[in-house]
Sequence to fold (403 residues):
Amino acid sequence: MATAPGARATARETTGVPQPAADSTPLILSGANVVLPSGTVTAGRVVVDGTRIAATAPDDARVLDVRGHWLVPGFVDLHNHGGGGASFTSGTVEEVLAGIETHRRHGTTTLVASTVTGDMDFLTHRAGLLSELAEQGDIAGIHFEGPFISPCRKGAHSEELLRDPDPAEVRKLIDAARGHARMVTLATELPGGTDSVRLLAEHGVIAAIGHTDATYEQTVEAIEAGATVATHLFNAMPALGHRAPGPIAALLQDERVTVELINDGVHLHPAALELAFRHKGARRVAFITDAMDAAGFGDGRYMLGPLEVEVAGGVARLVEGGSIAGSTLTLDRAFKRAVTVDRLPVEDAVAALSANPARLLGLSDRVGSLEPGRDADLVLLDGAFDVRGVMRRGLWVVAPELG
Fold:
């Protein structure tokens, strides 16, 4: 909870870095710019009691002085294929956990694991493995990107494994995920696309329009059927045209749709990002990473599903054909770019990185804000918007070093 400048905390001052894993004493993070849904509180405070954010602190709470810093909610990534050298599509459980930990160190405290196109038997088996991690609380669910996408806009997906979105096969993936399917990306203009959108909506799974060659009219039809997300808007879809506006215009116009944006300086021109925010408003944009194995790991050769990827200078491209193959982005970099390059208000960046994706996932009662009762998931940023601390459920993932 944030308090106004001058408010006194009835707690003793301490020095050094608190370690809640070893000490369950409530903690007050004091003096930061605290970003809340209602706005930013300067010289505010956040009280952590166990795994939750509390409204008040007991007299014996410790105090950590974080003046000159920003406190924002932990980031929520809707669309992430891996990191730390590990693929969420093909890695072992240990490798997947290492990839998750890589993103946590960069502020992503809630993550949906995304798969890439594969054959149905492989994807259903993979869904079983990832659903176990969801049941353990390591991930917030599963996003299936492919195989139900357009060969015209396949990007870094294997064309021979693509298929039309047959509702029966979509249902097979939902069932394999054991209640943890969160989103499916579809080219909704393909045969079965609209019926699959309806099926997903009926089962409480986000239908996302992406890797699509749809017309404006076909996109409107899919939205009316229940599609609510645009998968990495502008990428892997027809460009905006003045006679054939295509999916971009429809996705920007409809207030029911939230658009994903990859804010890495590679996937989008700053003017495209500004256009999206101008038309959607800050409540209908979600920054994602679309990260692959190289995120937080480095340049080199990697596999994205069955396709080989070359990462050079932090940019991932298919070895064959040169298409962009996901990103090496982490959400702390997306945040910093948003406020320092794109000049977005900090509050808008927080909405795009935390509150909006949490709401889409139906998790806003637990994550996405620093309000009392939510999980103690937070990111401590310095004045240059670099990560200095990350807390997840009351435990430091990255412990701050503050004199």
Summary: The chain has two domains: 12-73+368-398, 75-360. The longest strand covers residues 39-49.
